[in-house]
């Protein structure tokens, strides 16, 4: 009876666990396949992710981490596509799972991406909260560089929200950290931000920080950083009224941008040239030409925010020089651009809301159908269970009848043997009661029994580096007496004793893997053997079988009861 219960339990666990592991591996493969398409092949990434979510919805529960990763991936796809509200909803779904609520790479990425979305939607307070949430998921010092980058983003947000003093303090804190690391690239980025933060309050500090950022970028030959820093330095010079210095550095930046095709920065260069002519009352036609070039580069790169600044520059230029027609044309173009941006944003938000509504509607319909299918499935399972129990009950009655006859005969022989045997006095030994005794005062048998118990109970043999020295420390006994107890009490050596435990562990693991034979390297690692060769040799010597042969016999002989307590499966990584 006990055997049948154990066998049914093990069989049920094996049948349910093996498909789940295979399904989880398949889903992880689909996630990697879809992620490989980002960000260049969005259509393929979208199709692969939609397929993944459809399979998850159809096949029912799997490991919680799969739902988290799938929703995060769909959030990434929608974010790259510009559907920010939909992307945000998927990130929140990922964070609502148990796996998403833990401190891991996926939850950290969700909060970071949500912060970026909130910032793009001018929801600065929510963006700050999301950045701080992401910081809670970092592990210091493993993620220290990323923590510094997050604090830089937070300082920029505080500056945009008008908390300039706080932004300067936060950026200064990160600057000190990167200075200790001697990270020149991030130092230049911090100086560049500090120069911008001080531009409206302290022109001298702004100049010093901007020039230091330019110097550091030049030292590491970071061309893009040189161009960006040069623009900041030119802005400071213009604010100081040092137009010739500004023009000189802008001419150098212009050549650099043309050489490396930095079209976005080139638009800012031409806008700055026009701003200089405007502020010093210079050549109207030259300033107009600069603004036309800036507008051209903005249109080429889709820089609508920069284009808006260029059109404002045109309005100011025509107003200052009294060109009414040019003023009205620039004003009309500026208003048209603002209207276009507003309409596009409104239409985009409408499509996102409509999509969210359609998706939620389909999910609701599917949940109703799924509930009906689940009810039918439960009814079918209950019917099959009743039938199975009936069959098992009949088999048990027949088995118990045959076993009863055999047990009666065995019981009789045992009584005869016991009657002829001289009773022996058995005394339970407990070394804990003798812990303060010297080595020679503890009986060898007692010490050996405690060694076996301690090695088995604490599973010390699973450590490949486990040695006699480790055992001596654990037992608080000398090496000589430990070796003597193993030799005389157990009639074996330390290495043989430990290998026996490891081989017994391998027996249990092999008996529990009747569906698929694990690799020898994996089995050797799990059972504490240092190499595959030593595992193979010890297993053959102690059992008479190779591991493959033992596995084959385990499949043919289910009447040998395996260990029911197996280690939990390791968490699958992203």
Major sheet description: none
Strand content: under 5%
At the first level of CATH, the class of one domain is: Mainly Alpha
Per CATH, the architecture of one domain is Orthogonal Bundle
Task: Write down the secondary-structure element order.
Answer: HHHHHHHHHHHHHHHHHHHHHHH
- CATH homologous superfamily label of one domain: Homeodomain-like
Total number of strands: 0
Identify low-pLDDT runs.
411-429, 559-574
Label the structural class: mainly alpha
Return the CATH topology of one domain. Answer: Arc Repressor Mutant, subunit A
The number of helical segments is 23
- Write down the overall geometry: elongated
> Oligomer, anyone?
single chain
Rg from Cα: 37 Å
Helicity range of the residues? over 70%
Mean pLDDT: 76
- The termini sit apart by 44 Å
